[in-house]
């Protein structure tokens, strides 16, 4: 992705976040992530793309989400919750962030993306989320989804774990 494209995307993100348009901001965040990772054609992020995600862009995205949500949303907020939740179970973050529908305890299925709460009333760490939801239909089927992303599927923490590891490594830079 060209530097000017990144800057344009970040300016658009600033505008959306400043107007509390959380869902569109989430979509723009995902588009920036795809472009920076050279995954626009694929339309989703895999573990390799996350592992090689540029730290500078990750920090820029995170700082914007943190600033405009007063620390409620952002990758750093997710990392903080993830660290605490990991002591109990790998799926606990998803429950705390409101990403899971609790139909039967202790089993939970991921919400459909359009069921997420795109307001400041959402649980802490709820957004950004689209980067985690988007996946090809066949991967969705493999985790029990309906071919539309994570919705209705079981937990597959590998992608989220990859981003949390990348964020930890980027924080030390």
UniProtKB/TrEMBL annotation:
Q: What InterPro entries is this protein classified in? A: GUN4-like (IPR008629), GUN4-like_sf (IPR037215)
> Where is each GUN4-like domain found?
10-135
Pfam families reported in the protein's UniProt record? GUN4 (PF05419)
The record's SUPFAM superfamilies line, in alphabetical order, gives: GUN4-like
Q: Return the GO cellular component terms, semicolon-separated.
A: outer membrane-bounded periplasmic space
**One annotated GO molecular function:** tetrapyrrole binding
Q: Which top-level group of life is the source organism from?
A: Bacteria
Protein name per UniProt: GUN4-like domain-containing protein
State the organism of origin.
Leptolyngbya iicbica LK
């Amino acid at each position: 992705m060209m530097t000017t494209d990144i800057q344009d995307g970040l300016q658009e993100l600033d505008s959306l976040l400043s107007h509390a348009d959380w869902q569109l901001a989430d979509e723009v965040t995902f588009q920036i992530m795809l472009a920076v990772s050279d995954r626009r054609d694929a339309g989703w992020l895999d573990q390799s793309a996350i592992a090689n995600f540029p730290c500078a862009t990750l920090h820029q995205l995170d700082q914007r989400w943190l600033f405009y949500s007063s620390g409620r949303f952002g990758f750093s907020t997710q990392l903080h919750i993830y660290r605490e939740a990991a002591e109990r179970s790998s799926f606990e973050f998803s429950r705390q962030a409101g990403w899971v529908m609790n139909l039967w305890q202790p089993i939970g299925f991921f919400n459909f993306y359009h069921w997420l709460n795109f307001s400041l009333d959402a649980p802490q760490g709820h957004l950004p989320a689209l980067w985690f939801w988007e996946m090809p239909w066949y991967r969705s089927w493999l985790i029990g989804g309906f071919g539309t992303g994570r919705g209705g599927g079981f937990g597959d923490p590998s992608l989220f774990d990859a981003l949390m590891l990348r964020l930890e490594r980027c924080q030390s830079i």
